[in-house]
Amino acid sequence: MPQAGVDPLSNGTTCLRDAALMQKLGLNTIRVYNLSPSINHDLCVSIFNDVGIYMLIDVNSPLPNESLNAGNPGSSYDATYLERIFGVIEAFKNYPNTLGFVAGNEDINDSPSASLDPPYLRAITRDLKNYISNHSNRTISVGYSAADVRPYLVDTSNYLQCALNGSTTDPSRIDFFSLNSYSWCGAPPATSFDQAGYNILVSDFANTTVPVFFSEYGCNKVEPRVWDDTAALFSPAMMGVFSGGLAYEFTEGSNNFGLVNISANGFAQLRVDYDNLQAQLNKLNISLLESSNASATTLTPATCQSSLIGNSGVSNDFTIPPVPPGGQDLIDNGVANITTGQLVQVSQLNVPMAVFDSNGVQLQGLAITPLPDDQSNTPSGQNTTGTTPSGSSTAGSAATPSATKSPGASMAVRSWLGWSLLGLEMLWRLW
User: Fold this and answer.
1) Which long-range contacts (CB under 8 A, 24 or more apart) does 399-402 make?
2) 103 — phi, psi (to 5°)?
3) Phi and psi torsions of 17, nearest 5°
């Protein structure tokens, strides 16, 4: 477990509260960081599964030997590290709402890391996918979450999604590419589609052969956030290329990015940021999002070659490091002392602790609403807070979740086009 922290999927009662609030937002995906593979996650995952919310799972953590050393990747890429990340796979592989695994987060963010890390990120992707192939009864996608550092962004994507020797079955090739983007700050006219550089992102990724989405978004330089970037991200101008995004983040911390304040006793209060995000999500045309162009599923990836890399500071060496000593035994025989998770019956639907809207009024009857199997959650068109939040034209005092088609959690993420991520980030916090 992360030192002095709390695994975000370890407490069923708090997960019930969080899932109810996320379901009211209409989310279909959460990204979860810093998990402990040795902890039982069955109840929390089952709760999110019941409400139609899928999970993107980061395999790394900030603890020693549990992530790649970006400044010296060879020193950290060893069997101890592989045992950690394979343990996460083992713990989450059997949950049907595990949508994918994130092999790295913002490892490449400057010239030194751009020159050193790409081959190791492909090696980690290869090892994770080979472990899944050997020990999972279904295919689960593996991808990368990049820092939105424009001098390295496109080259990183080109490096990670090309095919070695032209082979589309190359296991070192990522299944999805995502970016943590905070370039849209404030509301128009201070910020617009072009001023945020979204037009450039659409152009840069127009020929992607894997799904691309925002794995984090939500600049907070102007507070409360009005989330106009959400309307842009899910607009026709973006959806031909991008597959949605994940708002950062659910729980309020010292960085002022949270949607919900959580007290030490488990009580929660919505922030205005929650209301404003809900108002933006309620405006989305879900039918349009579901009919997005899926032509990228038929595109053939480029063959890896140095000409794909335009920045001389980014590695163009496609010689992938071999599996480190002891690693192949783990890939072949699996990791020990990790209990593989499985869904359990969720018997409690009502949230037991007090939750207040952004006006301080306690929400009554807060509960999760189980959805049919293989259905995902969508915005309801209603608000959770009693008064209309900033920027919203939709009134209401409670939200009733609705369902839409499933992406098929067992399918490769290449099939996401036509199914958009409406999601949030979950991190462990000190309480």
Assistant:
1) 399/23, 399/24, 399/25, 399/26, 399/278, 400/369, 401/23, 401/24, 401/26, 401/51, 401/52, 401/369, 401/371, 401/377, 402/26, 402/377, 402/378
2) -80, -20
3) -60, -50
pLDDT digits (tens, 9 = 90+) for 315-342: 999 999 999 999 999 999 999 999 999 9
Sign of CA dihedral 387, 352, 430, 30: negative
Residue 98 CB coordination number (10 Å): 24
Sign of the alpha-carbon torsion through 372, 285, 426, 127 = positive
- What token pair was written down for 345? 């019956």
Decide: residue 395, CB within 10 A, 0-12 exposed, 13-18 middle, 19+ buried: exposed
> How large is the greatest C-alpha to C-alpha distance in the chain, in angstroms?
61
Active-site residue set: 106, 216
What's CA 129's distance to the chain center, in Å? 18
Long-range Cβ contact pairs of 325-333 (< 8 A, separation 24 or more): 325/78, 325/79, 326/78, 326/79, 326/82, 327/78, 327/79, 327/82, 327/127, 330/79, 330/82, 330/83, 330/86, 330/131, 331/82, 331/86, 331/127, 331/130, 331/131, 331/134, 332/134
Task: Report DSSP state, residue 200.
Answer: H
Determine which of 94-98, 241-245, 260-264, 417-421 has the lowest per-residue pLDDT on average.
Answer: 417-421
Q: Helix crossing, 118-135 with 79-92: angle to 10°?
A: 50
Query: Does residue 390 sit in helix, strand or coil?
Result: coil
Angle of the 118-135 helix axis to the 150-161 helix axis, nearest 10: 40
pLDDT at 96 over 70: yes
pTM (2 d.p.): 0.92
Contact 350, 367 (CB under 8 A): yes
> Contact 60/104 with Cβ under 8 angstroms?
yes
First to last CA, the chain: 15
Contact partners, residue 188, CB within 8 Å, separation at least 6: 228
- Structural tokens at position 144: 């990368």
Contacts of residue 347, defined as CB under 8 A and 6 or more positions apart, other chains included, come to none
Helix, strand, coil % over all residues of the chain, rounded to 5 = 30, 15, 55
Rounded Cα–Cα distance for residues 348 and 345 (Å) = 9
